[in-house]
Every structure is written in structure tokens, then in C-alpha cells.
């Protein structure tokens, strides 16, 4: 129950606002309400969904889209790796962990790591099921409702709605960076995305991600070597 | 084989399952499988995070530069001004996501009406 309550917190509310924006984005892309809610349920991580929508918009093939989404979602693996030891007790069944891992995305992960120390270890899987399940369910409803009312909005309101998604990510992506290299990668990606959108339509996301990411990693190695005595 | 390529009710769902569900949950399941074997600050993870960050950043920039729908009717300069103002407010306003979003939206809506 406490996990359910944790879904209604400031990060939870910010996430709702991001999903309000996502509903508008999906609608403009031409997805039906069922496809949109389906996407929320099966993908869940918002960056992955926004990349998927971006791939649909740039007319990418199913394979290019899967590749772009997979590249943008590799970070889910280390996140799960970090979370699992905190939830696992000697009696936890593996399938419970596989099932719960589906709820891992930025918000539930941050909330869980923050609140777990107040939850007894044997209750943590239950706590996370409540938290993750509630977040997913809530936002499926939010997306469905916003999708349905978006029609009646004046243009300025639906334009403002669209701006929510990029602003949410612009700020939260910067804040979630672990190391300087991520900030470098972010600046490069912001610059390269529009450039490749014009030069390499269909492969813009992959090209910007790979080139920007590799360059940022190169910078990371270089900066560390200079810092070493 | 794009999202609109096949005109059948099941194709969009298959597209979302393959390019969305499979492409994300595979990593989550691998995370459970490896649970604890990879060090959080290993160098490979820096590379992985860099590529993922640049990719998502490219999506953000494209949403601002080449938006769809109602947002496309606003001038690029207004969208850029709102985004930059929001990001600056986020950085100087104690790194609160909500502050950045509110300022960007205020500048955008204000500018929309000011420009008529």
C-alpha cells in the first residue's frame, strides 16, 4: 500500500505531466487511442516511447525503429542491475523479479531507490509492485483521457501540450547525468539531431546517438587521462 | 516496413511489440539476469549511457526543430526561446524539473499571444 501511495508524489506528478504531453504527441503522430495506451503498457519507459514515436514520424522501418529504441534503452539494464539486489531476498522467486523489472523506468527507479531504506527487505518486491503498477495504470488512464479531450483544445493549448515532452526531457535528462560525459553527449545530440534529420532522414536518431555518444565517450577518456597524474 | 507500411489492424501492434516492447524489456530481463555482475561505474556503461543520452537528446531537439501538429504553427524562434528560457530557469532555479517546464510554457504561451 505504501508503494501505491509513493506513486502520488512530486516525481509521480511530474511524470503525469510528461504523459499528458506524450498523449498529445501520439495523437498528432496519427496513432489511435488503443495503440497509444497499448504502447504505454508494453514499453512503459518514456524515452523509449518518444524515440519510437520519432522513428514512426521519420518513416523508419520496423528494424531501424527497434534498433533506435534498443539503443536508447540499454540504460534500463544497468538500472535493473542496480535495483535487483535491493529487492531480492533468499526466498524471492526469479519470475517475480522478471515481472517487476518491466516497471523499471526513470521515475519508479528513482522513487524506489529513495524509499527502499524505509521498507523491510522482504516487503520490497510488494512495495515495488504497488509503486510500479500504480504508475503504469495511472498513466494509461491519463493518456486515454488526454487523448480524448485533446480534440476540443484551442491551438495554443495543444501546442503548449506538445512542448511538455521535450521540456520534461531537456531538464530531467540533464539532471540524471552520472558523469560529465553525459552532458557532453546531450549537447552533441541536441546539435546533431536536427542536422542529421536534414542530411540522413530515417537514420537521424541512430547517427546522432552513435556519433554523439562515441565522441562524448572519447572526450571522457581524454579528460580522465589528462586528470590522471 | 514502416509503421504505415501494412494496412492491417494488427500491424501497428506488431510494430509496437517488436520495436517497443522487445527492444526495451530485453534489456530489463538481461538486467535481472546479470543482477550484480556489472559494476555501476564500469567504463562500458559510460559509453552505453553516452550513446543513449545523445540519442534521446537528438529526439528532443527534433521535437523542437521539426514538431508536428499545433506546435508546428508556432515560429521556430519562439520554440527555441521558450526552451532556452525553461532550461536556464531549470539550471539557475535549483535544478527543479517543474520550474523549467513552467517557465518554458509561460514564455511560449506569452509569446504566442504577443505575436497574435
From TrEMBL, chain B:
A Pfam family that this protein carries is: AzlD
Give the keywords, sorted: Membrane, Transmembrane, Transmembrane helix
Listed transmembrane segments: 6-23, 44-64, 76-92, 97-115
InterPro entries linked to this entry: Brnchd-chn_aa_trnsp_AzlD (IPR008407)
Q: What is this protein called?
A: AzlD domain-containing protein
Amino acid at each position: 500500500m505504501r508503494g501505491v501511495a509513493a506513486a502520488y508524489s512530486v516525481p509521480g506528478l511530474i511524470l503525469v505531466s510528461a504523459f499528458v504531453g506524450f498523449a498529445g504527441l501520439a495523437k498528432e503522430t496519427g496513432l489511435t487511442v488503443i495503440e497509444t495506451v497499448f504502447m504505454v503498457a508494453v514499453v512503459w519507459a518514456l524515452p523509449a516511447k518518444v524515440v519510437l514515436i520519432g522513428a514512426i514520424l521519420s518513416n523508419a522501418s520496423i528494424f531501424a525503429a527497434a534498433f533506435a529504441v534498443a539503443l536508447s534503452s540499454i540504460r534500463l539494464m544497468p538500472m535493473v542491475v542496480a535495483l535487483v539486489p535491493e529487492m531480492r531476498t533468499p526466498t524471492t522467486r526469479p519470475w517475480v523479479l522478471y515481472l517487476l523489472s518491466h516497471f523499471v523506468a526513470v521515475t519508479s527507479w528513482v522513487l524506489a531507490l529513495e524509499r527502499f531504506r524505509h521498507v523491510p527487505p522482504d516487503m520490497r518486491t510488494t512495495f515495488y509492485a504497488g509503486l510500479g503498477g500504480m504508475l503504469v495504470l495511472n498513466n494509461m488512464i491519463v493518456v486515454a483521457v488526454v487523448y480524448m479531450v485533446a480534440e476540443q483544445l484551442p491551438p495554443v493549448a495543444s501546442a503548449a501540450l506538445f512542448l511538455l515532452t521535450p521540456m520534461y526531457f531537456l531538464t530531467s535528462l540533464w539532471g540524471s547525468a552520472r558523469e560529465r560525459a553525459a552532458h557532453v553527449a546531450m549537447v552533441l545530440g541536441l546539435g546533431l539531431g536536427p542536422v542529421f534529420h536534414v542530411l540522413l532522414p530515417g537514420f537521424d536518431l541512430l547517427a546522432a546517438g552513435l556519433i554523439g555518444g562515441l565522441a562524448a565517450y572519447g572526450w571522457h577518456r581524454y579528460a580522465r587521462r589528462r586528470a590522471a597524474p | 516496413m514502416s509503421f504505415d507500411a501494412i494496412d492491417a489492424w494488427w500491424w501497428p501492434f506488431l510494430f509496437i511489440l517488436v520495436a517497443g516492447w522487445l527492444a526495451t524489456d530485453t534489456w530489463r530481463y538481461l538486467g535481472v539476469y546479470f543482477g550484480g555482475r556489472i559494476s555501476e561505474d564500469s567504463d562500458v556503461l559510460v559509453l552505453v549511457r553516452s550513446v543513449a543520452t545523445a540519442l534521446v537528446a537528438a529526439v528532443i531537439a527534433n521535437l523542437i526543430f521539426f514538431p508536428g501538429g499545433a506546435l508546428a504553427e508556432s515560429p521556430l524562434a519562439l520554440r527555441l526561446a521558450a526552451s532556452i528560457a525553461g532550461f536556464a530557469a531549470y539550471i539557475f532555479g535549483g535544478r527543479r524539473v517543474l520550474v523549467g517546464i513552467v517557465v518554458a510554457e509561460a514564455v511560449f504561451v506569452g509569446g504566442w499571444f504577443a505575436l497574435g
